[in-house]
Amino acid sequence: MSRAVDYKQAAIEQWTADPCESGASEAEPGTAEYIEALLRARADHAPWLAEALGYNETAGLRVLDVGCGQGIDLVHYARAGAFVTGVDLTPRHVELARAHLAALRIDAEVTVGDAEALPFADETFARVSSNGVLHHTPDMPAALREIHRVLKPAGEARIVVYNRNSLHYWVQQVLYEGIVRRRLFEERSMAGVLSRGVERSSIEARPLVRVYSPKKLRRLMRESGFTQVGSVVRHLHAEDSLLTSVLKPYLGPNALETLGRIAGWYVIGRGTRPA
């Protein structure tokens, strides 16, 4: 079995056992109460996402969410007036997303599929979103080419991945997890450290976890055919690194917001398929 297939199977096992953001609600999965709690938790945890993903820009557009998880972004896009489609590698995610959308009486198509081989025709969507997903796929360039393929001319992609230039990566993952806790010596690579500890897992699953600098993400998008490529960096909470935890009493929300735009844990890339 190839390494890529192993990584994908690990991802399926991980998010079957622990669906994305499942710890945010004590309600019954699949109910309106459950997904509404997840929506509130997302807004509290990452209020910048609404602007970064541009929910309110999509009224009347056909939008695809690659790696839709339990359907949080699908709900936001649909409530903004978009016609939504979701795809996810994990059948459990698809099952839950369908249930949540039905519970909220949102009409949507959600299907099992691989980001590296999307099950949609060329030039189908006006917007493609992928939030916190493609840093888990073995072949990122293939996934970006697929997103480009299914976009209509002048359509736009928004891609959110982990930021290699972040404080969380260098302080928390490399310095603390890798060196202080000696996981780098045990794993022999930062890929191993990230796979072991970044995602919460009740079954000790080890999905692939990669980090991308803003520069690299922009380069990959350009190489996949996108134009008007740009990126921004967001998201820094005090607990995201040992350094900011220590400095928390001296850091106000404005300081964290400013630092998050420089060394936050997420980089958001955007690019357009040429008309």
From the structure above, extract its key features:
12 helices; 18% strand; disordered N terminus; 275 residues; alpha/beta; 7-stranded mixed β-sheet; 44% helix; Rossmann fold; 7 strands
Structural commentary:
- This protein is an alpha/beta fold.
- It has one domain (about 5-165, about 200-235, about 265-270): 3-Layer(aba) Sandwich (Rossmann fold), CATH 3.40.50.150.
- Helices cover about 45% and strands about 20% of the residues.
- The protein is built from twelve helices and seven strands.
- A seven-stranded mixed β-sheet has the order 3-2-1-4-5-7-6, with helices on both faces.
- Helix 7 (about 165-180) crosses helix 9 (about 190-195).
- It is globular.
- The model is unreliable at about 1-5 (pLDDT under 50).
Unreliable stretches covering 5 or more consecutive residues: 1-5
| Domain tally | 1
Would you report the number of β strands?
7
What is the helix content? Answer: 40-55%
CATH architecture heading: 3-Layer(aba) Sandwich
List the helices and strands and how they pair.
Elements: H1 3-17, H2 32-45, H3 49-53, E1 62-66, H4 72-79, E2 83-88, H5 91-103, E3 109-112, E4 125-131, H6 140-150, E5 151-162, H7 167-180, H8 183-187, H9 190-197, H10 214-223, E6 227-234, H11 242-247, H12 253-263, E7 266-272
Parallel strand pairs: 1-2, 1-4, 2-3, 4-5
Antiparallel strand pairs: 5-7, 6-7
Helix pairs in contact: 7-9
